[in-house]
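Researcher: Let's try something more involved. This one mixes different molecule types, so please make sure each is placed in the same coordinate frame as the others.
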Amino acid sequence: MAEVIWGLATSHVPSIGAAMDRGRTQDPYWKPLFDGYQPARDWMGEHTPDVAIVIYNDHANGVDLEVVPTFALGTAERYRVADEGWGPRPVPDVLGDPELAEHLVEHLIDDGFDLTVFQELDVDHGLTVPLSVYCPDPGDAWPCKVVPLLVNVIQYPQPTAARCYELGKAIGRALADYEPDLKVAVFGTGGMSHQLAGARAGFINPEFDAMYLEAIETDPEKLAALSREEYIRQAGAEGIELIMWLVMRGAMSERIHRIHQTYHVPASNTAAALALFQNGPEAR
Amino acid sequence: MSQASRFDLPGTYVFDGPASRRGLRMNQLFMSLRSAANRERFSADEQAYCAEFGLTAEQERAVLDRDWKAMADLGGSIFYIYKLAMMDGRSMQYLGGVFSGMTEEEFTAALRAGGRKDG
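Model: All components are placed in one shared frame. Result:
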């Protein structure tokens, strides 16, 4: 059966990818963030999954506003790296796992989540930056296959936090029912607090972020109970991306073990964080 | 429409259905600027390019004048508006400064100092 071995919550700010692509991770601006990643990277490097389910949102690159799927899953063999306007990031194409993806689609629909299916998709920084946070030097290929799961966090009404958490639980059930022995990592991406537009642009809320980083492990129900308004008020208009962490959390066990965490302000206009959890109550 | 039931937060755009409907064509224009060929066509005749996408007169004025706040007021999504800003060599910190009434340097400094607070 497929088993979730770890979950990674991480910001997906494009400039984090650009700092890696341009060799600037040791610049004074970026060094604290990348130094903070290192223990997690070391640990993940020793715990390679077969597949990563990456929960993310697109930013006007692979998807536009003509169709706005609330939840969507990619079933392709391969995903090209999107050209966001500067040319694609110099990272490998992303290989999919159509068999697992189709299993997830069927189980999730039977479980009450009527997903949209992408058979073709260019993946943008929302997906590739978290892969680079996990694996900074992939060479010719990423260390694992990827199933992309997209969440509409851009156009109101976004799915509720509670629904995201329930979707994660349904993913957990679907994986438990998947016959091949497979090690799975789940990535919840986006956040932390930030707001890009309006007079409140530049808003950062370290108290809310600290609460969220703690509760994602110990009290996800509390985070699932927050309204959209509360997310936007407390974490900023774009901080509502944090609901995607709850999909990851829902796919994991009731008890999880924190391996590492780091928090840094700023990455461009955003509070950036990483939190890595081993599935299950304690280190094995 | 659900506008009445939707919350309002000071200084914050909530990009909702009515905003997205109003901004659809302008956002489509912004998205098209990902390709170099389209950027070239846009630069050659911005007004004609706006007409091709069917922008309203107000939206066209906002785009031609690089009135970033007006673009957001007229249904632009920040992730889409940013495509035009990038083309002009403008950063997200520059846009943050425009929205919050600061220079790019002041805005960047505020973020490096831990970010802006409410009120």
